[in-house]
What does this fold into?
Amino acid sequence: MYGMVNKAVEDMVVMHHGESVWEQIKIKAGVDVDVFMSNESYSDDVTYNLVGAASEVLKVPAEQILISFGEHWVLHTAAEGYGGLMKAAGKTLPDFMRNLPNFHSRVTMIFPKLQPPHFKCTDITDRSLRLHYFSHRKGLAPFVVGLMQGLGKHFKTPVTVRQTAAKELGLDHDEFQIDWTPAPSK
Amino acid sequence: MIGLPPEQFAAAFPFHFALDAKLKFCQVGATLGRICPDIRLGAELNQIFQAIRPQGQVSLEWIEQNRSHFFLLEHQASHLLLRGEFMLLPDTDILLFLGSPWFTDPQEIVAHGLRFEDFAIHDPAVDLLQVFQANKISLEDAKRLADKLKKQRAELRAVNERLRQQEAETKKLAIIAERTDNCVVLTDAAGKIVWVNAGFTRLTGYELSELLGKTPGSVLQGPETDPVTVSHMHQQLSKGEGFKVEIINYSKTGRKYWLASEIQPIFDDSGRLTNFMAIQSDITERKNSENLLRTTSALQRAMLEGAGYAIIATDTAGIIQLFNPAAERMLGYSAEEMVKQKTPAVFHLAGEVAVRARELTVELGRAVKPGFEAFVAKSELGQPDQREWTYVRKDGSRFPVLLSVTTLHDEHGKITGYLGVASDLTERKRDEEKLRATLSELERFNRVMLNREERVLELKREINQMRAASGLPPAYPSAAEIAGTQTQSF
It folds into this structure.
């Protein structure tokens, strides 16, 4: 997985719990990396082990960690790294969601070694959309939930996220129903 | 060949413009027109844009000369950069510019009032921005890594320095551990020996090679080792706590000895128990002298408590330090009210003390004060000082004692106090009195008896003389003989 993902886990833990807890989590996860290079590809195990160890050390279920991590990703990691691009991508949540698939397509073009997920938005209205999440990785649906909640906060458009279909149930991807209350038009 | 209809052309090139032969705008892409409103039809290119690359005054000839280059034009009012190419439309004088904004920072998109939707989908300008951004992030990561490495190198240097100091310190400690007469034993967390010093081998006779992997107890303990102490040790070890014990151990040759042992757990930086360290010393001699002392003290106590003599010890200033039960009985004071409170002056007659002081002044040829000195001046000279004194009881009654004073010394010969042993003379005085009375009675009786015997003898002599006068033999020849002898001796 993309080093930026691991870096984001690190940022989140350090921000809320401090360096020493992060070191503890790294030791528990058996991860001996001083600095994650954002655009390097790391074994998926690194991320899974870090999330697992964080869950143990912080005594929070892994699913909850992934949700918080998704929010942190949008509100801090992406905002710091790709803030300018995010702004250009749209002023509203649905505008942004329309551009989201392109972000990941470009990642594939720029870093052929990385295998980013890919997103598709359908049924876009001014108050809802259906998000299709395609990934060869397992168990990251809660991360997507966190991402959507983070985006809701970023665009000041609180969203509700409901998973309507799961890869675990035999589909080739996960689906989420995203609903929000439209901002009053100016 | 396919050509684009005008609407599709406009959608595919939202930033294009067209110039006439005088380099005046004759068509402007919708988006470009929106963000650069000064580009009006008929305006001159040179007043609105300047060429950054290639450099030069824009003219038809200049453009023609640089056909193989791409052009970078700067919109002077907004500093927007356009990257693209000029092409001369065939059969016309119209010069077409096809291009797109050149951004190196995503912030510029918003700053120029643009959004992704303003770019044609085929246009890689946004892709490039993402490349720039990823590159920027990579550089930041590299910088972070470099900073971290720099910090780590500094830390490593500090650690190395500390290690060097520790090594020097360790060397010193190792010499001490090796040379000391104390035994030093290092075990692992399970209590198995991993190292012993030379002192240990000297005392126990065991070499390290015979001990490795064994617990000290399994090698050293024996029949007289106290099992309660051993189980206490096991308890402390299993709790990982330090402790001190004194225990009987046995050397390789079976020699029994007392060992004082201080055992400390050793933890690593993460708080994990890694070793136990024991420092031990042979205390057999101390144990023996403690035993002797215990016996002697018990004996002394029995003597003090049981003696019929008053035994009173003082410090050098005369303050009573010891007041035995006999002294309590004789004087009516309790030890509690005397010890560390009073001097013997309490139960002496001041007059007697003054007289004794005067005597000693004469005898020793120096002034002896009429106080505590009067009791100790003589014994301090190493001379026996035994004499009679009158003691005054708490109730005021008096009795005679024979007091003998000895000076107490420490091991350096310094005087530490005085010891007085006093016996009650009341009985002895009474016995002496009785004896004296009996003797004088006996003497009187003797005198009486002697008188009587003389009278009988005289009478016998008189009878003998009277019979002799009548020519009769003496009736008492014994008296006559004596008389004769007596007579002869005259």
In short: Residues 483-490 of chain B have pLDDT under 50 and may be disordered. The first strand of chain B starts at residue 17 and ends at 19. Chain B touches chain A at residues 105-107, 109-110, 114-116, 126-127, 129-131, 133-134, 137-138, 141-142, 144-145, 148-149, 152 (CB under 8 Å).
